[in-house]
Design a protein that fits this description.
With 123 residues, this protein is an all-alpha fold. 49% of the residues lie in helices and 0% in strands.
Amino acid sequence: MAENEPSPDRPRYRWPWILGALVGSFLLLAAGLGLGWYLFYRPIVNVAVQLPAPPPPPAPPGPDAAQVKALEDQIDKQKAANKQIEEQIALLKERLKQDVCTIKDPLGKTAPGSSGAAPERKS
């Protein structure tokens, strides 16, 4: 057994320990760099696919009678309002054809009982 024990005058070789430490350090450094790249620098692709819109509900087979009646009533009211406005426009056009401003009546209306002629001036 004395043959297997290193003699005290023989130098101990430390190069396996140094080489192991260097290789281990390199592997740890590579693992740290790879993990850092994986966590922070790798391209992250988030592709969100939108689902198509749901189809619209089917249309009712025919128009709703209440809605049709309401629309017809609204159209009749609008026609009556339009007729009233047209009558007012016609009345205003007739007023424009007459003398708009007179001395007797600055509003353009002739006074009842007068002939509408300009009064004579006395000097």
